[in-house]
Amino acid sequence: MIDLDYLNFLENILTDNRKAKFLKVLENRTKHFTVVVEDVFQMHNASAVMRSCEVFGIQELNVIEQRYGKSIDKEIAMGAQKWVDINKFDNVTHCLETLKNQGYQIIATTPHENDCLLDDFDISKPSALFFGTERDGLSDEIMQKADGFLKIPMAGFTESLNISVSAAIIIQNLTNRLRQSDIDWHLSEEEILEKRLAWAKSSIKDIKRIEARYFSEMETKTKTSS
């Protein structure tokens, strides 16, 4: 449970415009879709995918680092790492099991399957959208365990797009359709409170000193009242 007194204490430090911006952004955040990038060799592409998640309202990005252990490129992410939740996995199996247990269907994005074109994709089910490496695509394990395949329609000679471009196209299409639907795609009240707290903490300089002051004051009040 969120400590509402603590949240109010931190938000009182922020400007009214900042707090209003948080609420406006959170109105458009969703976990109905989540994005997964698998062993992306060029890290700036993973960072760009994270930026697309943030811009189009996807709250969680899952990163499988089975072969390449690299950190998010902060310059490309442009601060998105402060607003998007990053879940890291060191193997494919763990990621698949976790997302399935959370109720997501596994959707492999690939130019080599015709199962479903982007505009025909059923947005009603919570879906984990998997994007593979620039060189090799998605691993065999993901392809074999996928519940469905998603493809961007193309009209030219080129058979594939850069992963960051593919992700941006797919995320924008699906989130736009989602917001125009009757599907309950919003964050829960508890999730909104959690993000308000996390974002407030990430927005305040010297947060450790501020936290220490708050808890010291609370401890003093408790001793006084008792």
What does the secondary structure layout of this molecule look like, with pairings?
Elements lengths: L3 H8 L4 H12 L5 E6 L4 H14 L3 E5 L9 H4 L7 E5 L2 H10 L3 E5 L17 E5 L8 H6 L2 E3 L12 H17 L9 H15 L3 H19 L1
Parallel strand pairs: 1-2, 1-5, 2-3, 4-5, 4-6
Helix pairs in contact: 1-8, 2-8, 3-7
Describe the structure in your own words.
There is one protein chain. This protein is of the alpha/beta class and 226 residues long. The chain is built from 9 helices and 6 strands. The protein has a 6-stranded parallel β-sheet with strand order 3-2-1-5-4-6, sandwiched between helices. α3 links the parallel β1 and β2. The model has no long low-confidence stretch (mean pLDDT 88).
Number of strands: 6
- Helix/strand order, N-terminal first: HHEHEHEHEEHEHHH
Q: How many individual helices?
A: 9
Residues in helix, %: 40-55%
Mean pLDDT, all residues: 88
Structural class: alpha/beta
Report the span from N to C terminus.
24 Å
Determine Rg (CA atoms, Å).
Answer: 20 Å
- Widest β-sheet, arrangement of strands: 3-2-1-5-4-6
The coarse overall form would be elongated
Question: Unreliable stretches, pLDDT < 50, 5 or more residues?
Answer: none
β-sheet strand percentage: 5-15%
Q: What's the story with the biggest beta sheet?
A: 6 strands, parallel
Describe this structure in a few short sentences.
The protein is an alpha/beta fold and 226 residues long. The protein has nine helices and six strands.
